[in-house]
Write a structure and sequence with these properties.
The structure holds 2 protein chains of 2 kinds.
Chain A: H1 2-5, H2 9-17, H3 20-33, H4 48-64, H5 67-70, H6 72-78, H7 85-88, H8 90-110, H9 112-115, H10 119-125, H11 132-167, H12 173-208, H13 211-234, H14 239-244, H15 258-270, H16 275-307, H17 310-313, H18 323-335, H19 340-355, H20 357-382, H21 395-415, H22 426-431, H23 439-467, H24 469-490, H25 510-537, H26 543-561, H27 565-568
Helix pairs in contact in A: 3-11, 4-11, 8-11, 8-12, 8-13, 8-15, 11-12, 12-13, 12-15, 12-16, 13-20, 15-16, 19-23, 20-21, 21-23, 21-24, 21-25, 23-24, 24-26
Chain B: E1 2-12, E2 17-27, E3 31-35, H1 42-50, E4 57-62, E5 65-66, H2 71-76, E6 78-81, H3 93-103, H4 108-121, H5 137-149, E7 155-159, H6 167-182, E8 186-190, H7 194-200, E9 203-208, E10 211-217, H8 218-225, H9 230-237, H10 243-256
Parallel strand pairs in B: 3-8, 3-9, 6-7, 7-8
Antiparallel strand pairs in B: 1-2, 1-4, 4-5, 9-10
Classes of the chains: A mainly alpha, B alpha/beta.
Amino acid sequence: MIASLIPSPASKWQQFLGRPFPRLVRHCVDRIFHGGEASDADGLDLSIGVVLGLLALPGIFASLFLIDKYGSLFQVIRGDLDFDPYKASLPDEYFFIVFSMVVTASVAVWKWDSLLPDRRDYNNLAPLPIRSRGFFLANLLALLLLTAILSLDVNAASIVLFPLVVCGSRTSFAYFARFLGAHSVSMVLGSIFGFLLVLAILGVLMTVLPFRAFRKSSLYVRFAIILFLMTALSTSFAVPPMIQTLAEHPHSLFRLLPAVWFLALCQSLLGRAGPLLHSLGRTALVATCIALACAVASYAFSYHRCFSRSSETMVTLPAGGGSVASWLFALLDRLILRSPFERASFRFTFRALVRGPNQALVIGWFAGLGIVIASQTLFVAVSAPSHAIERFPSAEILSVPLTLAYFLVLGLRCTFDIPANLRANWLFRLQINPKTRECASLARKVVFTLLFPGLILICFPLYSYFWGWRTSLIHTAIVAAMCVALTEVSLTRFRKVPFTCSAPAFKSHAIVAVLVYIFGFFVFSTFTALAERWTLDVPIRLLVFVLFFPGIWLALREWRRSLTYVDTQIIFEEKSSPAVEGMNLTYGP
Amino acid sequence: MIALEARGLMKCYTTVPAVSDVTFSLSSGQVLGCLGPNGSGKSTTVRMLTGLLEPTRGQVLCGGKNIQSNLVGYRERLGYVPEEADLYPFLSGQEYLELVGTLRGLVAPHLGKKIDALLELFSLYPHRHSATGSYSKGMRQRILLIAALLHDPQLLIFDEPLSGLDVTSALIVKNLIKGLGERGKAVFYCSHVLEVVEKVCSHVMILRKGRVLAYAPTSELQKAAGQPNLEHAFMHLVEGRDPEQTARDILQVMDGA
């Protein structure tokens, strides 16, 4: 009887959450996860649980893939009886640290627009009876809470699984516990550092730059951070051997990499660090504290400067493009853009690609992946023992521009499917003749405009410098022809104005599509590079390529002709496939 | 009793004043309509009245005290419907209202009942669990109206509250504003729709280029301007050009295109 009168901890907690300040903190967490001012109903919106689940997944797979390296049975099979798990885990530890930093920093970049309060918050919350410092503290608390949750979530699986995998062959619990402690501390701190660093950059930019300049530069800064993170990930296999010899080269530039500091911290906690690693481990702790201080300070300044004065900045929105862009468009009008549809849609597509946050991030992700693979390939080619500038470049070196081009073309193709403010597509729906067949042509021109300047201005001069202009010309021509073929293949049945159609739903054949992309990468990049290397030795073999490209072109032309009228009509909505599909077996008119 | 008073309000964004020397008072039970062409300073005035914008000069008084001295206390008594229905698209209508109610310090069981009742009356109850991102403009506007009325404020500031509303909802809101005035609430009503202002407001203030051009009871304003209705009075006072002639000019330009 008496027990029923005393409120349970759960109901007390509910009561507490119902109070204004905790409710405000909860709201701030929600608004960070669900996007800021730029978000709308059409955007990709995942629940908090799904996001956290997705972020935790890679840690599980990465840990499980390492079982064969650390399993005692595999050690016996390999004849490695003096196996030292701590020593052997150093490269993997480095990879896990880099990976967790990259993931948490990427989340911060993804949520860039919603980390700090914006105009929508001002519109909704400023007229309510909340003290300005109340909202400031609520959002700060939400940010710190999110940093902690993300850092734990991203590393949750690997914190438990990786030590289990590494120390599984040892019976001592102390051995395992020590590794678990060192690994978890360095991983979580590394993640926190990654997130806070991006937050600090955002806060500083918001504080230092005028509102208009901040809005304009924001996208480019995010793009640069994504590229930097992908490059950092690409070093995760190359750096560990250098760390093992760091004591011999104390002034090596590798000691400036943040991931190296956290690896050094891990080694310090394991009791395996020399004086240099000890000092780098301390740097990790100091850097985390500095990142936290910078993030909080810049948040406070930006809050005071931007949020508290939102009402004043409402009237000054960023201005549009400059004279360089209009000059470039005028030139393209004369060279490649023929119809009014192409001219108008090309401008729209380019602007959406450059200014749309989701589009830029997807392109950044693809470009980053391309850079990671290309740099790994280049690193392997350059660090080979027999490496010297030969008469012709090796297949690995030939594959580098092919790899970059593959990811750029594929990235653009995927980005074209992401809508940019779908509600505004009524303009295209009203203006465009649905029978127009210029969509693929438009998309093709966008891809080529982004691709060919790089080929001509970077690829050709670089290969000319090292291997002479003839080899370079052949290589550039083959890369260009392969890109044209890839673009044509990827744009078959493309019948939409980029960014104006609803996003395709996740389909059952998406996994097959991913496998096709992976297979396509090997054909496009690895196989083509090998074939090209083979033809360079005997020039007559170039005939293979000369015959191959017209063959592809003819096959695609025939396939396009076979498409029905419905398959060529322009679309603004992706229709999901029905659960049950009729087979149209009825014979008749 | 004077509920809200503006004394010599002035706001400069750069060096050019957006609003200059705006003075008026609003008593309890009074509905004051604020009219003016685009760029006349209506929104800036409203933002200063709500405390969202600090005046460069002058002050807004509530109960004789400058609102800036106790902004939180002032906002507890204020209900505000902004011009732009910019809601959080990830929250449902009910969740949004619960958020506003909780932040206003309303307690759970009472708040829930009130929200349900108002959602029902504004025909939003069937859509209460849908995300506001999927709402039409009129539905978002109705959510804002409910949010402004939840805590039964003494002072209401409406900035274009009929924007996007269907005919029935607009009629309900017009009657509601009248009713609020009759119940002793002070209402500041900003609009472009002259006939609504004429029917609903006891007093009218006309702004032009950031200055008060006229401020009087609605009936007196028509008489003073020597015009049969508010539309004509407004055109007489504010617009220097003939709208019919301008329309003809536009048609002529179109012919030449």
